[in-house]
Write a structure and sequence with these properties.
Blueprint lengths: L1 E11 L2 E11 L21 E12 H5 L8 E13 L2 E12 L6 E11 L5 E13 L4 E14 L8 E14 L14 E12 L1 H5 L4 E11 L1
Antiparallel strand pairs: 1-2, 2-3, 3-4, 4-5, 5-6, 6-7, 7-8, 8-9, 9-10, 10-11
């Protein structure tokens, strides 16, 4: 499978928005979840599209009051829209941005989630972008989604998924820091490893849990 991702982040005094689009291509086609991944998904063809858009409003920014406490730097009202092949979800909740090292970002959001496949449920989302070894140019970046108790809707078999966990983590090295990108703080050319993970009870019962490390190249403007 090949994966191409476009993502964008805008952060202002009053909040921000993060969004991405994943274009996934598989020359031999995709497979349905479960059953040892042996049943072709005829509806997907040779590609899949998945996107998330996550806007948030900073309570400190819009009220002028300080909402920081302990390790928390700010509190926000968060929303999220997810969509892909035959799938759509909407989420709303609160977010907590934590104090992080310089140029780092660490946030945890608690949402109420509704979508067309799973029953309504609570979801926790963590987002991180943190330096590991700043001088050498290493950092870790990614997100995770955790639904503590997920169940498919009746139209999808009312399957008890248990805890549903999805994560995509990148370990990146700033290989371009000694090239033309060196003098531009907003541009980076990085290489590294991207690890995609998806675990739940149904996937485990069908030997279809995902732990997929793959090389990646990232160009940031």
């Amino acid at each position: 499978m090949n994966l191409f991702t476009l993502d964008h982040t805008t952060v202002t005094k009053w909040g921000g928005v993060y969004g991405f689009v994943n274009f996934m291509g598989a020359p031999d086609g995709f497979y349905t979840t479960g059953f040892y991944n042996e049943i072709p998904d005829e509806s997907a063809g040779n590609y899949r599209l998945y996107s998330e858009v996550s806007p948030w409003v900073s309570l400190s920014g819009v009220t002028g009051q300080d909402f920081s406490f302990g390790p928390v730097a700010d509190v926000s009202v968060d929303g999220q829209i997810n969509f892909g092949n035959g799938y759509a979800a909407g989420l709303a909740g609160l977010g907590f941005t934590f104090k992080a090292p310089k140029d780092g970002f660490l946030k945890l959001s608690a949402y109420w989630r509704t979508d067309n496949i799973k029953e309504n449920a609570v979801q926790f989302t963590g987002v991180f972008d943190l330096p590991i070894w700043r001088k050498a140019g290493f950092r870790i970046q990614g997100f995770f989604d955790l639904i503590p108790q997920a169940t498919n809707r009746a139209a999808f078999g009312s399957t008890d998924l248990g805890a549903d966990f999805i994560s995509q983590t990148r370990f990146l090295f700033d290989v371009g820091r000694n090239t033309i990108f060196k003098n531009d703080a907003n541009s980076k050319f990085e290489i590294g490893c991207d690890i995609y993970m998806h675990f739940n009870k149904d996937l485990a019962e069908n030997n279809a849990s995902a732990f997929v490390p793959q090389p990646c190249v990232r160009l940031t403007f």
